[in-house]
Amino acid sequence: MSAPPATSPSLVLAHPTLAERKHTWTLTQPEWGTALTLEEYLHREEYLTTVPLAKHGGVTHWILTVASAPPDQRPILSSCETLRKRALYSTTAPPGGGGVAEGIAHGVGSVFTDPAYRGKGYASRMLTMVADELKAHQGTLMSPSATAASSAADDKRLPPVAFSFLFSDIGKKFYASRGWVPHPSSHLSFTTLPSRRSSTASSDAAAAAPPPVAAIGYHELAELCTRDESLLRDRMSRLPSSLEAHQAPSSFASTPPDASRPLTYVALAPDLDTMLWHLMREDFITTRLFGTTPSVRGAVFGHPGRRVWAVWTRTYQAAPPAISANTLYILRLVVEDESAGEEYLAEGLRAVIDLAREEAAEWGTAKVLLWNPDGEVEGLMRRSGLTFEAVEREKDSILSLMWYGDGPGENVVWVAGEKYTWC
Ligand SMILES: CC(C)(COP(=O)(O)OP(=O)(O)OC[C@H]1O[C@@H](n2cnc3c(N)ncnc32)[C@H](O)[C@@H]1OP(=O)(O)O)[C@@H](O)C(=O)NCCC(=O)NCCS
Questions:
Q1: Which tens digit of pLDDT belongs to each residue from 322-376?
Q2: What domains lie within the chain, and their CATH numbers?
Q3: Membrane-spanning residues where (predicted)?
Q4: Which is nearest to 133 in space by CA: 225, 217, 190, 61?
Q5: How many angstroms does the Cα of residue 113 sit away from the middle of ligand 1?
Q6: What is the Å distance from ligand 1's center to 157 Cα?
Q7: Tens of pLDDT, residues 46-77
Q8: Which H or E element spans position 174?
Q9: In the 3-class helix/strand/coil scheme, how is 188-223 assigned residue by residue?
Q10: Best label site of 87, 199, 263, 401, fewest CB within 10 Å?
């Protein structure tokens, strides 16, 4: 397969047709198809262009190809997709001191080179071009047949692009040397718990009574997400902009920040569309594996104002009974009032995590993972008597961020790093 070298000016970035996307998905299925057959995977990938967050130009597919060949007959030298998300970032500019601004963040995913073209620099060339393009990218409506699709933002005034990010599954080096700075990526891993609901039929029903925690379904999500975003904005506006006052040194990127410059805190908005993107992805696979969708999508403890709650999603590498690599991820964990008292918060966290562990057991997954908990949450978890393994990841799901705003990328601190950020 002869194709121009990766440095050739004849290479261009283009949006693939549906047939070209299907060709790429066919190649990526062995890598990312998990528990889905090829047919199911092709269906899932197309379906994922129609769900909240992705629809209306939210998802954009990119290929590196040659300018001279027509669509559907040109080589696909490398490919990826980007998902547009709402980003929040702290600002320190006077007058008025710190505030929280809203921008766009593009999540880069599914970076892939056909094995026949690997090791020739095509992914690197594509990523360099995509990174540049994303700085001003607002979204692209992917039409089934067109190659150069119109901008989704032609008549909408979307905020500027603040950064792009990705989760590397190939360690820290590859994307770091192409401009995406690796950030700390850790998780807590909990074992599953046999369901107490089914055991309450025993004579010892009182002892087995479930803790005061309620299940969260689809219909509770909108209110919770709105509240969460407002609390997050408030917290971000109070975080110190100077390195000296910063409390959690472990939250910095691998390169030390410049102490003479202010810190910038960034987060992805934990909004309803973001949660729905994950839950609808989950619905797709549970429908295929179990013929149904789960009704319990999270758990909430306590009353409004003092709630502790989590939303989660189940992911499957294989169909049960091969469950060892299947995981229930906490998408977002929220403590509404951090001053509610250690004992109360520890009890709330335990109740929420234990319900997640029960759901994990019931739905053919082998563990519960919570990404990037802050130090206080981890301390409260320990205090609650929960046991878990704390893991610092070095190879998989490494958050890597390219900052497009003012100031050095090393001074960017990622907050709210649970799994809802993944794409
Ligand atoms: C990773 C991938 C996209 C690279 O594509 P490519 O066109 O061969 O990439 P390039 O020729 O531009 O660059 C090759 C680089 O990829 C690195 N690389 C490839 N596979 C890697 C792996 N599994 N782990 C670490 N680095 C890897 C090579 O070491 C080389 O790095 P260097 O240039 O810094 O020495 C391709 O190997 C692929 O599609 N892999 C399967 C899917 C995948 O893992 N995608 C990434 C998900 S985060």
A1: 999 999 999 999 999 999 999 999 999 999 999 999 999 999 999 999 999 988 9
A2: 11-182 (3.40.630.30), 186-252+262-393 (3.40.630.30)
A3: none
A4: 61
A5: 8
A6: 36
A7: 999 999 999 989 999 999 999 999 999 999 99
A8: helix 173-176
A9: EEEECCCCCCHHHHCCCCCCCCCCCEEEECHHHHHH
A10: 199
